[in-house]
UniProtKB/TrEMBL annotation:
Name under which the protein is recorded: Zn(2)-C6 fungal-type domain-containing protein
Keyword Nucleus found: yes
Gene3D superfamilies according to UniProt: Zn(2)-C6 fungal-type DNA-binding domain
Matching PANTHER family: FINGER DOMAIN PROTEIN, PUTATIVE-RELATED, ZN(II)2CYS6 TRANSCRIPTION FACTOR (EUROFUNG)
Length: 655
């Protein structure tokens, strides 16, 4: 056999023997490439002429090239270069391990850890592990990757199940299987601290602030986690979400917030096609309530994952068949952790919070909700309320569920995105919904108690949500009017909307608990407050004569609220900062359009930390017709809230 054919045969034989393993077994490129069959010692010139090359032990040039004055190049093969590449990667792994040990020692003695390694990139998970760990790591990644389409979340066989069985593409592990959970929790996962984004000291401060205060605004959604080490052991995304939210509420943490928010978005983007556990949904839920720019994306992803994990079927574990909500014995598809009553309770609370967040976003964005007609929510909340194990936080959550069910009926019956005036026949329906809101407030106001961490805020928040409900109901009668007079059968509802908006600002100015909670409450509060201000000014602009409104009192009320917002310490990304300039401009535009004086000289645009000067003369604006004077009130939810828009509609998670 010729020499070249023998070499080809050897190489083919090696490939055939190594093809059984394949790259899918966890081997990297170095291991699946052909091995070095013979060491090359001849230079390129001698090999070209097919003559003997006398190469000294110390390397080029060879005897012939030295004698002839030729360039002697020892052309090492690609296989030889791979050896060097593999050695470099192994060296990087050794350096990474040394860096991890040094970081652990720094944490142990309480000093700031070393900076993140630049040789392995910003993502430490992209470093090359030792060869004996390659298979385990690849197997974990495959187990954590969701098949498309995923397994059916139903307890009974679905059409997709038959297809997956035939196509042999069923995921080897269920979404909530113990093996998948072990795979996701095994190994060391880098987080904000190990990547050097923030120090352990800063992370400790952020986590402490969240659990000591912020978590109680959201009914203790943080669950059993109360410390930094617990969060780090759980995973990087929940830690990133909590640190981001906590930094948002500290006026001195702007840089920290930007860094944490960037990392959180990156982690969420990378996890789109991966399986995650309940705490991942918890992280998305936390971010949905507080991070306005990402709330819709995080909420929809959380709802999708909750449906795949059958989170709504946790009611079966609590009520079984005694309430009529269950379907008999516990189905086998539920994971073993669901047998634990506390785990089922936590999942039910999380499912309720996803419903609350979805309904909030439905109201804020004038869109249909994603969670509709869920029996556990529509019927089960009253049964859950009367359980012996119901806590103060449960009562607060269920008050929201009950209120949003009413507001959902208002949206479905009266419409939220059409621009046609309401028919007169709906006047009685508006009165009926108003009475339902009154009964709701009477029922739950008797159940609320003082919170040990945020004081009387839950009670004041209940009153504010009651006013939000009235405002949302009353503003419906302005749809499609476009500046025309209010029909007589809707005048009482229009007056209710005006009086409710006034009450909202009077509460904010008169209740210390609400003023302290301006930096802490979820962003739904801020958007509804901004909406109340815009609606109030729009009514003053178009209907102050028909409704006999004292516009100077309303202007003074809005101006006082603006002064409060300006003196509230927060970072520029906070909703208070973002909505204040727009509401200020709206006040001046409204006064200019009707020729009314503004109570005091308030700078237009931007935030000002200065108080209004007592006794300062009021500014007077002559009547100037503006296009905004005829703006339909049904467009207020899409109006300019002073840069307080929702960039998540077009945002890139990688930025």
């Amino acid at each position: 056999m010729p020499k070249r054919k023998r070499e080809s045969a050897v190489e083919n034989g090696h490939n055939e023997s190594s093809s059984d393993q394949g790259p899918k077994g966890g081997q990297n490129l170095v291991e699946v490439l052909p091995g070095i069959t013979r060491k090359i010692t001849a230079c390129a010139a001698c090999r070209k002429n097919k003559i003997r090359c006398d190469m000294p032990d110390d390397g080029p040039p060879c005897v012939r090239c030295r004698r002839r004055g030729l360039s002697c190049v020892l052309n090492r093969s690609l296989q030889s270069l791979i050896e060097d590449t593999k050695n470099v990667k192994l060296l990087q792994t050794d350096v990474t391990h040394l860096h991890d040990i040094l970081d652990m020692l720094c944490q142990h003695i309480g000093v700031e850890g070393p900076k993140a390694l630049t040789s392995v990139g910003h993502d430490r998970e992209g470093s090359y592990p030792p060869a004996d760990n390659d298979h385990n790591q690849t197997q974990q990644e495959e187990e954590g990757c969701e098949v498309s389409p995923p397994d059916s979340p139903s307890a009974v066989q679905a059409p997709i199940d038959t297809f997956l069985d035939i196509a042999k593409t069923r995921s080897p592990h269920s979404i909530d299987s113990p093996a998948s959970a072990r795979a996701s929790r095994s190994g060391t996962r880098s987080d904000l601290i190990s990547k050097g984004i923030i120090s352990a000291t800063i992370a400790e401060r952020l986590v402490h602030r969240y659990f000591a205060r912020l978590d109680h605004y959201l009914y203790g959604i943080g669950g059993e986690y109360q410390g930094l080490e617990q969060l780090r052991a759980n995973g990087p995304i929940l830690l990133a979400a909590i640190c981001t939210v906590s930094a948002l509420h500290d006026p001195q943490e702007r840089v920290v917030y930007e860094a944490c928010n960037r990392e959180f978005r990156s982690l969420v983007a990378k996890s789109t096609f991966e399986k995650r556990d309940v705490d991942y949904i918890r992280a998305l839920c936390i971010s949905s309530f507080w991070l306005a720019d990402a709330s819709r994306i995080c909420s929809s992803d959380a709802i999708r994952r909750a449906a795949d994990m059958r989170l709504h079927r946790s009611f079966d574990a609590l009520f079984e068949d005694r309430t009529g909500l269950g379907s008999g014995p516990m189905p086998s598809v539920l994971s073993p952790s669901m047998q634990d009553l506390s785990a089922a309770t936590d999942r039910v609370r999380l499912w309720y919070l996803l419903f609350v967040c979805d309904q909030h976003l439905s109201i804020l964005h004038n869109r249909d909700s994603l969670l509709r007609s869920d029996k556990g929510i529509a019927v089960g909340w009253e049964i859950y309320l009367h359980r012996a194990e119901t806590t103060e936080s449960d009562v607060r959550i269920l008050s929201q569920v009950s209120l949003l069910l009413i507001m959902g009926q208002v949206r479905d019956v009266l419409g939220s995105d059409n621009q046609t005036p309401l028919p007169p026949a709906l006047a009685s329906q508006i009165l009926n919904y108003s009475r339902q809101l009154d009964k709701w407030y009477t029922k739950f106001s008797a159940l609320f108690v003082t919170n040990a961490f945020i004081g009387e805020f839950p009670k004041r928040g209940l009153q504010l949500h009651y006013q939000f409900g009235k405002l949302y109901l009353g503003h419906q009668v302005f749809k499609g009017l476009r500046g025309r007079p209010i029909p007589p059968h809707f005048v009482s509802a229009a007056t209710m909307a005006h009086d409710t908006a006034v009450s909202i600002f009077e509460m904010i100015l008169g209740e210390p608990e609400l003023q302290e909670g301006l930096v802490g409450m979820p962003h739904y509060f801020h958007v509804m407050i901004a909406f109340a201000g815009h609606l109030l000014l729009q009514i003053c602009q178009n209907y102050y004569e028909q409704l006999a409104i004292n516009i100077q009192d309303d202007f003074q009320l809005i101006n006082s609220a603006l002064n409060l917002f300006r003196n509230t310490q927060c970072i520029p990304q906070h909703p208070i900062w973002r909505m204040t300039p727009g509401l200020n401009r709206k006040l001046h535009d409204c006064a200019a359009s009707i020729g009314a004086p503004v109570p005091s000289a308030v700078p237009v645009g931007g935030l000002s930390a200065q108080h209004a000067i007592p006794g300062q003369e009021a500014l007077y604006y002559p009547p100037v017709p503006t296009a905004e004077a005829s703006q339909p009130l049904d467009e207020l939810l899409f109006a300019d809230f002073g840069e307080f828009n929702f960039p998540d509609l077009t945002s890139n998670f990688m930025t």
